[in-house]
Amino acid sequence: MVVLSRPALDHFSHIKTYKPPATYFNEIPVVDLSHPDAKTSIVRACEDFGFFKVVNHGVPMEFMNNLEAEAFNFFNLPQSEKDRAGPPDPFGYGSKRIGPNGDVGWIEYILLNTNPDIISQKSLFTFRENPEIFRSAVENYIAAVKKMSFEILELMADGLRIEPRNVLSKMLRDEKSDSCFRLNHYPPCPELGALSGRNLIGFGEHTDPQIISVLRSNNTSGFQISLKDGAWLSVPADQNSFFINVGDSLQVLTNGKFKSLKHRVLADPRKTRLSMIFFGGPPLSEKIAPLASLVGEGEESLYKEFTWWEYKKSAYKSRLADNRLGLFEKSDINPR
Ligand code: GA4
Q1: Cis link prior to 87 (omega < 30° from 0)?
Q2: Which residue from 111, 202, 290, 295 lies 20 to 30 Å from 271 (Cα-Cα)?
Q3: With a 6 A CB cut-off, is 90 part of the ligand 1 pocket?
């Protein structure tokens, strides 16, 4: 990524550095997947936050480390090499521009479709000497993370006491599941010193449109979640764990009981952040509407039914920070 001068930096959004009270740090829910009652803590975390950290997840560290190393190999290539894998359509390599509608961030990334047939050829061919090493690092990692996602969604169904227990996971297990995967590289931004007391936005605030997102990063923090009172809470990095976000579609499926959480990433002046995120989505033709068993007696369904394709189409017309679910709400009762 090209180093920018102070005036050029002004094109990026920055915010006044904000330090939330230290007590907030104790609030991030941690779910031990090996605990017999993991389902109860998952449900509580999704209701209260729409976010939690997962430990004892069973994904081999080797897969996480291998992919991290391969990702760094890619991002350390000369710019002209990386550009051959872009621009994103939406898959492929992208730098600074996020999505098609004018959002920018202090970031470069690779976006991949996780369908095994189409793990983007475009981004992998740049590894002309070792495309297979990169491909297998991506595939091993995604396979293990998918497996963990299925387990989490099944524990969620158990915790919500809904049947069958694969009611949520089957949307991701489906071979037509429209899931995607993102490798995000946030280079350090030393020029930030010039913007004293300010932070540069790496990835602007947004909610994820899918069902769940599974994030893993190296040990550089920067990820922040939005709390109910509007404050931003910095999530301490933990390279050995995963962080789960409820997506918009899961908010709808649970009739607003689970919240899709707004989050963002701030750039660091000194350290490189590398994150990998699996976005678990349903097949394009899947109908998304509150599950009947989750609309209690006397309660109303808060959302109109839509297909994932309709939601996705409308999401790609929006800006990152937009409230994408607004269009699909039945009345003006806003569950957020
Ligand atoms: C946010 C979640 C995922 O990163 C993503 C993003 C997508 C993109 O980068 O192309 C979007 C964004 C995300 C939501 C609104 C639209 C589409 C950029 C954007 C402005 C891959 C996704 O599925 O939705």
Answers
A1: yes
A2: 111
A3: yes
Q: Is residue 91 part of a domain?
A: yes
* Nearest atom of ligand 1 to the alpha carbon of 101: 20
Look at residue 1 and tell me if it is in a domain. no
Pocket of ligand 1 contains residue 180 by CB under 6 Å: yes
Helix axes of 61-75 and 131-160: crossing angle, nearest 10 degrees:
130
Assess if residue 7 is contained within a domain: no
Query: Over the stretch 256-276, which tens digit does the pLDDT of each residue have?
Result: 999 999 999 999 888 999 999
Q: Is 256 in the pocket of ligand 1 (CB under 6 A)?
A: no
Q: What is the pLDDT of residues 116-148, one digit of tens each?
A: 665 555 656 566 667 788 889 999 999 999 999
User: Closest Cα to atom 6, ligand 1: which residue?
Assistant: 99
Looking at the structure of the chain, the number of domains it has is 1
The model scores a pTM over 0.85: yes
Distance 208 CA to ligand 1 centre (A): 7
CATH number, domain with residue 284: 2.60.120.330
Range of the domain at 189: 18-328
